[in-house]
Design goal:
The chain is an alpha/beta fold. Helix content is 25%, strand content 29%. A hairpin with a 3-residue loop joins β11 and β12. The mean pLDDT is 94. Heterodimer of HisH and HisF.
């Protein structure tokens, strides 16, 4: 069963509603036992980086989640701030990130190509696929997703970049390494495109 991690932040009900419409079993991970029974994990996130990291580190779930993803190879996807938490660090805060996909979260305002644009980056934007990946299968080139953010992920390894989007410059908006994924936009708010992505994630099996 897909479990959405409840660590005190994120729109959990929206994901449950999508999976209910898709006919895919899902639930909330409140406890270590919930983590142990998950076949897939979703790390949601909204708000500020340090707040999200503090809540996650204090949840008592991190050790169990890391065991499931690194030892049992359970697929996990971080969404919005949940994606940014996968990084090593963020310009938004002072706390270290999870470091599961090495990289740095940068401010659009610190990039000369985007600093004059309205902040946050809000609204619909297209993804530019860089590699064929099960997470993005069955997408048309014009598929659009809903974004709401002022910071973006910059992967250390270009091989971890699955798709980019453009806002003043091309930024990494879908990333993946082994069974760990991240997406900056909000699939739960992105209508048919978002439903397809969440369905694709539910079908991913990682056996390496």
């Amino acid at each position: 069963m897909i479990k959405i991690i409840d660590y005190g932040i994120g729109n959990i009900q929206a994901f449950l509603n999508v999976y209910k419409r898709l006919g895919i079993n899902s639930g909330i991970a409140h406890s270590i036992d919930d983590i142990k029974s998950a076949t897939h994990l979703i790390l949601p996130g909204v708000g500020a980086f340090d707040q999200a990291m503090t809540l996650f580190n204090n949840s008592g779930l991190r050790e169990s989640i890391e065991k499931r993803i690194f030892e049992d190879r359970v697929p996990i996807i971080g969404i919005c701030v949940g994606m940014q938490m996968l990084a090593t660090s963020s310009e938004e805060g002072s706390l270290p990130g999870l470091g599961w996909i090495p990289g740095t979260v940068r401010a659009f305002s610190s990039n000369i190509s985007s600093r004059s644009l309205p902040m946050p980056h809000m609204g619909w934007n297209s993804l530019i696929k860089k590699v064929n990946t099960p997470l993005l299968k069955d997408f048309k080139e014009e598929s659009s997703f809903y974004f709401l953010h002022s910071f973006y992920y910059e992967c250390d390894d270009a091989g971890d970049v699955l798709a980019t989007a453009e806002y003043g410059h091309n930024f990494h908006c879908v990333i993946g390494r082994n069974n760990i994924y991240g997406i900056q936009c909000h699939p739960e708010k992105s209508h048919s495109s978002g439903y397809q992505l969440l369905k694709n994630f539910a079908e991913i099996q990682y056996n390496a």
